[in-house]
Amino acid sequence: MAHYAFLNNDATTGTLREELMILSNEMGNLTSIEEPTEEDTAAIEAKQAEIDAKQQEIDNALCVVTGVITGVIETYEKSASDETLEQEIKDLEDSRTADKTREEVTAIEAEIQVKLEELHALPPDVIDNTVYWEGYYGKGGLCKRTSYNTIGGVHQNGGTSFRKNYAGVGYTYDPVRDAFYAPQPFESWTLNEESCLWECPVERPEGEYWWKEDTQEWVDYLYLSQPYNSEPPYPSWSWSTETGWTAPEEKPDDENSYLWDECSLTWKKLDNGND
User: Fold this and answer.
1) What is the distance in angstroms between the CA of the first residue and the CA of the last residue of the chain?
2) What radius of gyration do the chain's Cα atoms show?
3) Reduced to 3 states, what is the DSSP secondary structure of residue 23?
4) With contact defined as beta carbons under 8 Å apart, do 104 and 137 qualify?
5) H or E element in which residue 104 lies
6) Domain locations in the chain?
7) What is the largest CA-CA distance in the chain?
8) How far is the C-alpha of 165 from the C-alpha of 150, rounded, in Å?
9) Which among 3, 50, 2 is positioned nearest to 25, based on CA atoms?
10) What is the pLDDT of residues 233-262, one digit of tens each?
11) Segment 197-216, tens digit of pLDDT
12) Distance between CA 146 and CA 236 in Å, rounded?
């Protein structure tokens, strides 16, 4: 089954869309001139070029993946076609005229049968319906097919890789690269243009190691570096290199369920799992 990712580019296109609206209004003023001069016509063409360029910026803007679903198979098989064979069959069928003898008609029909067997022996055409299903699932929004078995531009089962990596919620889709990639893990890591995987500046040694972002090295003891651009779940929480985001008060270690209350800066016990 094929998988499809829902996308949103509001964060990267808000200003661009406002600029496009301004350009469109300016175009409206130009095209409303009843008897445009050569200068007006040139201005309209120039404005249209600006509009097209701005729309291209919007189309090329980065998108964030908001959801991934399993959809239908994106391809289907269709009986093969061969224009030469089909024309030969048609010519033979047309040659079965009334003036032909029974023997001649029988020979023609035998030849037609041979041609039909040749046609049916051809491998079926595989029709890729990806664009249709992207539109169907997107319902007017942004939607792109993603390959479950593609990692770093390589299909893990030997098939054809597709859009570099399997999409996940929070991932980025880059229309220019036509690729999905994960959020940047640390500020020092860079995106490999070929695989669209993030790479650290220092090769990781074999064994169990943790990345230490402040010194940009791999260490052999537990060290949790704060992910790039990560935000605490609550304003009062701070980052710990041992536990990650950590509340200012230790969570009680008992059989009860607790929920952090930011107003009182304490853990509130839940009553049977309910507020």
Assistant:
1) 41
2) 31
3) helix
4) no
5) helix 102-121
6) 3-74+128-181, 80-123, 238-269
7) 103
8) 5
9) 50
10) 999 999 999 999 999 999 999 999 999 999
11) 999 999 999 999 999 999 99
12) 38
